Amino acid sequence: MTVGEVGKNLPWVEKYRPSKLEDLVSHDDIVKTINQFMKENQLPHLLFYGPPGTGKTSTILACAKQMYTPQQFNSMVLELNASDDRGIGIVRGQILSFASTRTIFKAGPKLIILDEADAMTNDAQNALRRIIEKYTENVRFCIICNYLGKIIPALQSRCTRFRFAPLHQNQIIPRLKDIAEKEKVTITEDGVKALLTLSGGDMRKVLNTLQSTWLAYKHVNEDNVYTCVGHPLRSDINYILNCLLNENDFAVCFKQIQDLKISKGLALGDILTEIHTIIHRVKFPPDVLITLLIKMADSEARLASGCNERIELAALISAFQLCKEKINVNELAC
C-alpha cells in the first residue's frame, strides 16, 4: 500500500487534523497564550478540559510538532490515551522512566500527554503529582480531560488550566465547507444546518457524520444526515407533535405515534429531546408549559433508568391531553 492510499483510507477527522497552531479554527486566546509560552521557552504544565471534539488533543499535538522536529518527536513525546492502561503501575513505571531520563537533544523539556485523564484512578493521580514536581526540569505534562471535577485538586493546582468551549457554528462552517470541497462532497445548506444541529459544537462529530452520510448516500442533505445517525426527521417530529396537540382520542394518538416509531425505528428519548426544543415555540400559558416540561422531564428520567417505552409514550400523550384540558378550562373560565 502506498503513502497516498494510506491517506485516502484515513477517517477525515485524522486526515484533516491540524498540524500547526495557526490551522486551528477556534480558541484564539488559548492558542495565542500557548504560542507566547513557547516563544519565551516558558511552557508550564498544562490542563485542558472541556467537551469532546473541541480541539484539546489537536492543540497539544500541534504544539508538539512545532516544538520538536519529526526526528525528535518519538523520543521527546509520550502520548497515553484512554485505550492505554494508566493505573498506578504505569505511572510508576513507563511515565516515571520517561520523565527521569534525559535526551542528547537540546530541544527543551520532554512532553507527556495524558489524554482522557479523568479515567485515571485517584491512586494513579496521586502518584503522578510527585513525578510532576520532581522532574519539572526535564519534562512538561499536558493533562486532557472532559470533566475537571474528576481531576484531583493537587494536580489542578500544579497546572495552568485552559477551558475549551464548544465551537461556534461560524467557526465550524468554513472548515466543513473546505473539507467538503476537497473531498468533492455534494452538500446542501439544509445538510450543513443538520450537521451543526446534531453536533452541538463538536467538530469531530460533524466530520464523522459528514463522512458517514457521504459514504452511505453520496448526497448530504437534511434527511440523509438525520437518517444516517438514526435521528428523527423534522417531518416525523412535526407529525408526532401534530398528533399530540390535535388528536383528542388517546387510543388513536397512541397507535399513530407507536406505528411511526416502529416503522422508522425511532427512540422515544430522541423524540422527547426534539419535542422539547419545539414546544417552547407553541404559545402555551406559562403554568401549562411548566407542567408539561416537568412531566416530559419525568418521562426522560424514567426512560434513562430503563422504563418501558410504551408506558412512557402513554405518559407523554396523557401529559399533552391534561394540558389541553387545562387550556380549555381556562378559556371557559374567561
Would you give an account of this structure?
It is found in: Nucleus. GO terms for molecular function: ATP binding; ATP hydrolysis activity; DNA binding; DNA clamp loader activity. Its main location: nucleus. InterPro entries: AAA+_ATPase, ATPase_AAA_core, DNA_pol3_clamp-load_cplx_C, DNA_Rep/Repair_Clamp_Loader, P-loop_NTPase, Rep_factorC_C, RFC_lid. One of its GO terms (biological process) is DNA-templated DNA replication. The relative contact order is 0.09. The model is unreliable at about 1-5 (pLDDT under 50). This protein has 17 helices and 5 strands. The radius of gyration is 26 Å and the shape is elongated. The protein has a 5-stranded parallel beta sheet with strand order 2-3-4-1-5. α10 packs parallel to α12 and α13 (about 235-245) runs antiparallel to α14. It is an alpha/beta fold and about 325 residues long.
Given as residue ranges, the uncertain stretches (5+ residues, pLDDT < 50) are: 1-6
Through-space gap between termini: 77 Å
Instruction: Give the class from helix and strand content and strand pairing.
Output: alpha/beta
Oligomer status: single chain
Number of strands: 5
Shape: elongated
SS summary, helix count: 17
Order the strands across the largest sheet as they lie in space. 2-3-4-1-5
- Give the SSE string: HHHEHHEHEHEHEHHHHHHHHH
Helix-residue proportion: 55-70%
Major beta sheet, specifics? 5 strands, parallel
Estimate the strand proportion. 5-15%
Instruction: Write down the Rg.
Output: 26 Å
The average pLDDT score comes to 86
